[in-house]
Amino acid sequence: MMQFGAAACDLDRFSVVFRPGPRHTDCVTFAANKLCSDIRNSGRVDCHSNCNRSTSQVSLFLCSDSTNRRNGLLGGSPCVNPSGRRNLVGPASYSVETSAYDVAALEPPTHVAEEKVGVLLLNLGGPETLNDVQPFLFNLFADPDIIRLPRLFRFLQRPLAKLISVLRAPKSKEGYAAIGGGSPLRKITDDQALAIKKALETKGLSSNVYVGMRYWYPFTEEAIQQIKRDRITRLVVLPLYPQFSISTTGSSVRILEQEFREDAYLSTLPVSIINSWYQREGYIKSMADLIEKELQSFSEPKEAMIFFSAHGVPVSYVEDAGDPYRDQMEECIFLIMQELKARGVSNEHTLAYQSRVGPVQWLKPYTDEVLVELGKKGVRSLLAVPVSFVSEHIETLEEIDMEYKELALESGIKNWARVPALGLTPSFITDLADAVMEALPSAKAMYPRISTSEDVDHENDPVKYFIKLFFGSFFAFILFLSSKMITAFRNHVI
Ligand SMILES: C=CC1=C(C)c2cc3[nH]c(cc4nc(cc5[nH]c(cc1n2)c(C)c5CCC(=O)O)C(CCC(=O)O)=C4C)c(C)c3C=C
Ligand SMILES: [Fe+2]
């Protein structure tokens, strides 16, 4: 292990261990003492005041009880800038508030009496300004679940991400400029969070709802830190992607697992992850409602073809890596159409995949190619339905509403309409709230501490502890004597 400096905090529950950076071990004593006085005086720690030469070189671990101490450094690493943790890039907007640590929040949830429910909404995130576009793209392409390199070539991930993000930025910027200069995703997701919180309240559940974005602010790591500070005791994780893909829900959950594995509090926090929810009745009915309503905008509603356009993924995800995304998408479309048929809506429908990036094969058929074919075949009315995402974003507002609409009209389609994303649709929000309620009881620790008989006896039963101590000492004494005897014998034989 690395070199450690420790502070003798005369507090009964906390031990403080510093892992110094390679060149700043002399900061450690100062930092440790400062930290202890912070805890004693205010119960809070300002991590960044600890080492005035190179704060980022000093990692801090708080061990909340003697067991953690015995097991090594199970405490979190609270000083780390969430975006720096994964080496994500973005403007340095780390606030003082988020760097100040509530020490009590690090206590494992088993010590907390009152239940405090948290809901973590996971989403992709999007650049808020045109200047954010390239660093956002860097974060996206630096994700090994987005560009899947063979293990041997992983060292190329970040240089490649840099190259691709710089090359793609001009095209992406054009797209974001066309929809007002940034992604609306953060605002919409925040509104959804509030709506879900209210829906849960009407169902009698008080909760904190957090938003954790994968590639832009507020990053998932920031949300997790807030969950710790708020002393959440039970957490439901709800990715805002109806269908599971390795590249979306899979990637976000991988980050969660990474963060939770390393942390004493989070590893024992009961968590329930809703991996996909495309088959939920409330979601299917809400989609059917929107489609049914939008069909009425055509002069001949029955003539319009329902054109489901899903975000694509590379074929290799499905065929080599076992991504269930295509299967779930097809089932989802089947369920929506079944619901519509039950309502007497039996329009023709088709599914195609949009937004492919790079030279590899993506799921087919491609949206742009299908639009041209449909025009050639004589389809005159088309209702586009974005189906892999529940908020408006660049791929609905720019790609579908502008690029694909133009292509469709050029290809001979005369009447075009699009179903809005679900956003804050009340029946949809209610259904998400129901999904949370249903998931709550099955929450369990991601990484439960393996409690040894030693832990149980020592911590819970002092009588057993002393009996063990007595017999342990007795056996140690016998062993001591026998080793003396063996040595004596050996010496004697030689
Ligand atoms: C279910 C939804 C999505 C899947 C699956 C998905 C996979 C995926 N995406 C890229 C590359 C890009 N995605 C971009 C933006 C973007 N992607 C999704 C959703 C899914 N992506 C959304 C909602 C957004 C828009 C966010 C916003 O700004 O509002 C972009 C950036 C935009 C652009 O340049 O086109 C890229 C690039 C890959 C490579 C991939 C699967 C491997
Ligand atoms: Fe994407």
Q: What's the quick description here?
A:
Its EC number is 4.98.1.1. The chain is of the alpha/beta class and 494 residues long.
Topology at a glance:
Layout: E1 5-7, E2 15-19, H1 26-42, E3 44-46, E4 59-63, H2 66-71, H3 82-85, H4 96-99, E5 100-102, E6 117-123, H5 133-141, H6 157-178, H7 185-202, E7 207-213, H8 220-229, E8 234-239, H9 246-261, H10 264-267, E9 270-273, H11 281-295, E10 305-311, H12 315-319, H13 325-342, E11 349-354, H14 367-377, E12 381-386, H15 394-410, E13 415-418, H16 426-439, E14 444-445, H17 453-460, H18 462-493
Parallel strand pairs: 6-7, 6-8, 8-9, 10-11, 10-12, 12-13
Antiparallel strand pairs: 1-2, 2-4, 3-5, 9-14
The structure holds ligand L6N33NVT and fe (ii) ion.
Fe (ii) ion is lined by residues 311, 355.
Protein name: Ferrochelatase
Subcellular location: Plastid, Chloroplast
Main location: plastid
